[in-house]
Amino acid sequence: MSRFLPFIGRQYEDSIYGARVMILGLSHYGDPEDAYPEFTRDVIDENAYSPGNRFFTLLTNLLRLSKDAPDDTERRAAWEQVAFYNYIQDIVGITSRISPTPEMWDEARQPF
Known about the structure:
Helix 2 packs across helix 3. This protein has four helices and three strands, in the order E-E-H-H-H-E-H.
C-alpha cells in the first residue's frame, strides 16, 4: 500500500539522462500527522530546491555530477529530471537513525 505519492519532476518522462531516473529513499521521519499523501512532494519542495539540507544537496550534486554548491536554479533543474519515492511508506519516527520495523519492511513490498 502506498501512503505517500511519489515526487515526479516535470521533465521525468523526457529527462536529460536518456532514461527515467527514480531516486529510491528509505523512509520519512516526522510527526504522525505528517502521514498524508502529498508529504513526499512537500518534502522535496521544502528541501531540494534551496540550500540547507545536506541530504538533498548531496543528491543534487550527484545528479549534476558536480561538487560545486548549486544555486536554486540548478537545484530545481536537477530535480525536474527525476522521480523520488520512499520505499517504507510509513513515518518511521521523529528523527533519523530510527530503523523501520519488520512490519514496515513487509508492507513496503506490496506495491512491487
